[in-house]
Amino acid sequence: MQPQPLDLLHLGRERVIGSYLLETPEGPALFDCGPATCVPVLKGRLRERGLELHDVRHLLLSHIHLDHAGAAGVLVRDHPELQVHVSPVGAPHLIDPGRLEQSARRLYGDEFDTLWGELAPVPQENVRETSDRVLGLECFPSPGHASHHVCYVDGDRTLYAGDAAGVRIQPSRFVLPPTPPPEFDLEVWESTLDELERRDPARLALIHFGVAEDPGAHLAELRRRLRAWTALVGDGASEEEFEASATEELGEDAPPYEQAMPLWQSYAGLARYWEKRRTRA
Length: 281
Prior knowledge:
Helix content: 25-40%
Shape: globular
Distance between the termini: 50 Å
């Protein structure tokens, strides 16, 4: 059965943040869960499929950014038997999200609570560190967007990509590189794209948003734009110039992309990347 995203209607807008329901040998599982502000909608989407939250046995996380994993602690509090799978690097930040929340509040300011809601801890006994196999799926590191990012591949060659395959608000064909600070790294991400291509997926399940049935063309477009945007900022483009260029590229597709990955954040991550490179030089 082809995967279909559960639209979490972030801030009431369609096709910005999704989640995926998977069947595993140990019962239903979710891939990513969105932020706490989307929990009521997530529960409603499960009911549309004949399930309650308590029927879901496992939560597979790509990484711990709030648009992908922010609701994890709230879900476990409501469903204490839920097992949360996350990379070994990300696990401590689920158990104690204090530093993560502090960093995010600095970034988002007064908008934090409206965007993301509560960031609750996940009890240590509910956290399962990922290895190369998780519930029958292949799992592998996929850094570049974030150092702790992992992807999953099922037996039908669906690659559950998190942010490693970029942002593409279907049916748009525009593939946007999400490059937030502080961990974006072009060379590392290019190596991850090599890994994604080597696995020859049949499709890409994107959190932002939908299933891409043309993975080869999609990944090639992501690689091209990653290089172009990194070079633009490296050549001295200001934040205003970068945002103007990206907005012109996006055209009428801009609003949902801006909500899924604000361009000011992309610029900040690209600028931080170049700052670190120049410091090392």
